[in-house]
Amino acid sequence: MEKAGAPSVTICTDLFTRTAEGMASMWGTPDYPTIFTKHPTAPLDAEELRGRAEEMLGQIVSILTGVDTSTDYS
To answer: What is the CA radius of gyration of the chain?
Structure first.
C-alpha cells in the first residue's frame, strides 16, 4: 500500500514480532510501522477486540497521518 501511495500500518500479535520484523526487512523496509497487541486474539469476543482496537487507535492514527496523537490537548 505504501508503494502505491497509501499510508498503512501492520497490526500483529506480540507472538509474531520477529516474523513481522523479518518480513519488513525482507521487503526492504526495516522501519515499517508495526503495532503489536498481546497474543492471542482468537478467543476474544467482539467487545474485547474492540477494546484492543481502541487501545491502539492513537498509534494507528499517528502512523497513518503523521500527527502525534500522544499529547492530550484538552
So the answer is: 14
